[in-house]
Each structure stands twice: as structure tokens, then as C-alpha cells.
Design brief:
Length: 92
Amino acid sequence: MTQKYAPASATNTEGAVATMSKKDVIAMSGTCNTDNVEFPTPTMASTMPTTYREMDNTALTTLGATGNHAALEEMLKRHIMNTDKVHVRISG
């Protein structure tokens, strides 16, 4: 069953919201065949991490490498947990 497309929104650097068409998404992804494009399902969206605490180590490391201070803080907490062998509630 083919899923219907809902336009994606993105915020640019000025804070304005831009709406991307399916054609724009395909152009950005480099995919020419629109039949092969998969869009997120509500189930997929509901499992997405919403806080740094919920993110896996790879995502945190990537964000930390870009200088994201909240990600670096979570990485430090996890490092302390691992070094001192304590639970997050104690180290947080």
C-alpha cells in the first residue's frame, strides 16, 4: 500500500518556516523514482527520541562533535556513569 505524502516543513536560519514539496524532497535525496521514496509513519515518528537522554551514543557523539552543549553535557553524564559505575539519577 502506498503511503500518501504530507509536505515536510523546515525552519531556515531566519526562523521562517518553509514547506517542501515531494519534488523538493526527492531532489535533495537524489532519488529520481518517486515510487521508492518512503516517508515517516506515525509509528516511526512516535519512537523518535525527543530528549538528549533518549538518544543513542552515536547520535550524541555526532551532535557533540558539532559543538552542541546539551549533547556534550549528556555525554559527560554517561562518561561519569561509566567511570564511577553509578546510575543516571545519582550522576545527573
